[in-house]
């Protein structure tokens, strides 16, 4: 009898511990669904409202539908709170973002300030290829992607690309709502050898999903610089501006392929059809304001190349003290956005920060000397 009571007690105790552990895990997961972002003014005309638009576009790039019926983003002074459960992400994306949030909250920056710099967060989403791939659900292999589509027999040939140093064969599927793929094969014009592949797919929220694959069809972080200037998915986002691009230079015609005019008209037709569908969406970013994507770019550019004024806000230090710390470092002007002021490179100043944030890749758009993956 005593032995039975003991077994019952042990069983009850184990059940209690199990329930307690599950509850703790649930609390942890719930906690990691929310994140606090700190907005740091980066240039004279910068406002938190503009940065909120940039944040929404950044979240949209990685698949957020941003339903208007849910309040997934709120602000208080210069602090932005996001709840990834209310941003219209897929379950798989939420799982990845929860893991990233956990890593962020373990950083010295978050433990010290209870926030992550908004620019750092956007850089982690868009500037780390593996983060982008995992959150958007890009498969590991080209085969997995192509199995979802039926490519049309028509195809185009590019021999004067403004991006690739090789020739390109362009294949595509029919457009069915927000379902379509474009496949680019980077080929040697003489031998026909394929060096790598690039894919563009349509996401349900109106954005494009980019993929880069090696000659064997395995996912990779960036294109080979000896074959292409396409860089990382972050550069594809910047170049395409959420659009199916037409050709920007004339191409020669080849037997067995669409003529230059036929391919150009096909691409324009798909682009306009996709544009009409995007404008009809009731949730998400405002695709009629296409230049708003620049506000996302300014978030990661001003973080990766900050001014002393921005660093003063980020580090919570007097400007004169920051300027003293940086006095031996050279400055530069960002040609496209000179209003950002005299800038430093993040890699040169990160070790001077009073606290360390979760590390970022050394470039958002180009092949990175340091390429982070906090989801592995």
TrEMBL record:
Secretion signal span: 1-23
Alphabetical UniProt keywords: Signal
Name the UniProt record assigns to this protein: Uncharacterized protein
Lineage: Bacteria, Pseudomonadati, Bacteroidota, Flavobacteriia, Flavobacteriales
């Amino acid at each position: 009898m005593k032995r039975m009571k003991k077994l019952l007690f042990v069983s009850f105790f184990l059940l209690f511990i199990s329930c307690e552990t599950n509850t703790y895990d649930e609390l942890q997961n719930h906690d990691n669904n929310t994140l606090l972002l700190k907005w740091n003014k980066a240039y004279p005309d910068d406002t938190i409202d503009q940065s909120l638009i940039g944040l929404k576009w950044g979240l949209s790039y990685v698949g957020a539908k941003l339903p208007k019926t849910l309040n997934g983003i709120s602000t208080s002074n210069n602090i932005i709170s996001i709840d990834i459960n209310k941003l219209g992400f897929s379950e798989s994306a939420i799982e990845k973002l929860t893991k990233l949030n956990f890593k962020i909250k373990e950083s010295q920056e978050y433990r010290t300030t209870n926030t992550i710099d908004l620019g750092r967060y956007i850089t982690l989403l868009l500037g780390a290829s593996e983060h982008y791939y995992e959150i958007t659900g890009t498969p590991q292999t080209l085969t997995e992607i192509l199995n979802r589509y039926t490519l049309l027999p028509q195809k185009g040939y590019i021999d004067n690309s403004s991006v690739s140093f090789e020739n390109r064969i362009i294949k595509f599927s029919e457009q069915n709502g927000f379902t379509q793929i474009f496949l680019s094969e980077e080929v040697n014009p003489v031998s026909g050898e394929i060096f790598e592949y690039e894919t563009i797919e349509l996401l349900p929220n109106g954005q494009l999903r980019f993929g880069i694959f090696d000659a064997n069809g395995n996912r990779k972080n960036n294109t080979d610089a000896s074959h292409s200037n396409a860089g990382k998915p972050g550069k594809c986002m910047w170049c395409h501006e959420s659009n199916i691009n037409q050709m920007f230079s004339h191409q020669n015609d080849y037997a067995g392929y669409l003529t230059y005019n036929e391919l150009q008209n096909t691409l324009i037709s798909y682009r306009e059809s996709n544009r009409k569908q995007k404008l009809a969406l009731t949730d998400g970013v405002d695709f009629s304001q296409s230049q708003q994507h620049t506000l996302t770019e300014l978030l990661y550019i001003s973080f990766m190349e900050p001014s002393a004024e921005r660093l003063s806000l980020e580090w919570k230090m007097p400007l004169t003290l920051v300027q003293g710390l940086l006095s031996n470092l050279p400055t530069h002007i960002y040609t496209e956005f000179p209003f950002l002021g005299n800038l430093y490179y993040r890699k040169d100043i990160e070790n001077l920060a009073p606290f360390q944030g979760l590390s970022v890749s050394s470039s958002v758009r180009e092949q990175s000397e340091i390429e982070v993956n906090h989801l592995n």
